């Protein structure tokens, strides 16, 4: 399963959808990794206002990992450096 998010709103929707798909409440997800339910709520509504550490904790609770890769159809870094 590949979940793609290119904006904070998309990330929020993916996190919420995954949690709900696992049948977890915000309270249950929070207790799995030592977060407060309000932090889960914040990550699912405004992730740009949360810490990266909290994001990684929630990803762990949801059995997800973060992978970074170049976007399709983007210029290589060495090409950008020449400009």
Structure characteristics:
single chain; 83 residues; mainly alpha
Short description:
The chain contains five helices and no strands. The chain is mainly alpha-helical.
Low-confidence stretches: none
**Helical residues, percent:** 55-70%
Ends distance? 37 Å
Number of helices: 5
Strand percent estimate: under 5%
Structural classification: mainly alpha
Mean pLDDT: 91
Computed CA radius of gyration, to the nearest angstrom: 15 Å
Largest sheet: none
Shape: elongated
| Strand/helix succession | HHHHH
Let me know the number of strands: 0
Topology, pairings included?
Blueprint: H1 8-21, H2 26-33, H3 37-45, H4 52-61, H5 77-81
Helix pairs in contact: 2-3, 2-4
Describe this structure as you would to a colleague.
This protein is mainly alpha-helical and 83 residues long. The protein contains 5 helices and no strands. The protein has helices at residues 8-21, 26-33, 37-45, 52-61, 77-81. Helix 2 (26-33) crosses helix 3 (37-45). The longest helix is centred in the first third of the chain and has 14 residues, at 8-21. The chain is elongated, with a radius of gyration of 15 Å. The N and C termini lie far apart (37 Å).
